[in-house]
Design brief:
rod-shaped, about 240 residues, mainly alpha
């Protein structure tokens, strides 16, 4: 009698543990869905922001959009797989849980890759700066061309910068310093070059997307652990039921 009671008590504890893991996994998937929706909406906004595409085209830095596109896809997939993860956890279906674990590993890779790429093409000392510098130098060297002159005026007036790395670029390239390189109040040339100013502009947008992506990658890691624990617990429960 005592032995039977011990088995019953052990089964009850196992059932409680399964329930705890299951509902914890459910909650993590709800959080992942919310953050994934936020990431999806924010990256869509970056891509569709009025006028932003014109700056990307003007500077010829379409590489910036690679990370944005990856994170748009990641946000959409997170919303889909988080819903399926909630269902698989509540159903306590081992095969569905294995599939869910696989999707979490895949999403971890995608979110980490997306955040790494978007940061590599939007931050100081990243791959985007040589591209902006190359474009700015080309504009300065061909500043006699009306298109290059108009591009320089648009960039330098709106951003409040001068040259690629500063006013000295005009001196080195033997070009006259344009009026848009000077502060209209003080008359002094802008100290910062357009490479740094434009990078800071891109960085302000990208950092939020990267932060959301890294939070999601941490949740995916946790979901993998919880999914494995739940699968193992369900196996033990099945074995215990079979022995009875």
């Amino acid at each position: 009698m005592a032995r039977g009671e011990g088995k019953g008590e052990s089964m009850a504890k196992l059932a409680n543990r399964i329930a705890a893991v299951k509902y914890t996994l459910f909650c993590f998937n709800i959080v992942a869905w919310i953050i994934g929706a936020g990431l999806f909406a924010f990256t869509i906004y970056i891509r569709a922001e009025p006028g932003f595409d014109e700056w990307i085209a003007l500077l010829d830095i379409y590489q910036y959009y690679i990370g944005v596109y990856i994170l748009i896809g990641a946000g959409a997939l997170v919303m889909i797989f988080s819903f399926l993860g909630c269902c698989s956890a509540l159903m306590e279906h081992s095969v569905a849980l294995y599939a869910f674990i696989g999707t979490q590993v895949f999403l971890f890779i995608v979110t980490v890759a997306g955040s790494a790429i978007i940061l590599d093409f939007s931050t100081v000392n990243s791959s985007i700066q040589p591209l902006i510098r190359q474009t700015m130098i080309r504009f300065i060297m061909t500043s006699e061309d009306p298109r290059s002159s108009a591009a320089l005026k648009l960039i330098q007036e709106n951003i409040g910068c001068c040259g690629a790395d500063g006013p000295n670029d005009y001196m080195v390239l033997r070009q006259p310093l344009p009026l848009e390189c000077r502060d209209t109040v003080t008359g002094n040339a802008f100290f910062h070059g357009c490479v740094d100013e434009l990078t800071w502009f891109l960085e302000d947008k990208s950092i939020w997307a990267a932060v959301m992506a890294m939070i999601l990658s941490a949740i995916h890691t946790t979901n993998v652990v919880l999914g494995v624990v739940l699968v193992q617990a369900l196996k033990r429960e099945e074995e215990a039921m079979y022995r009875r």
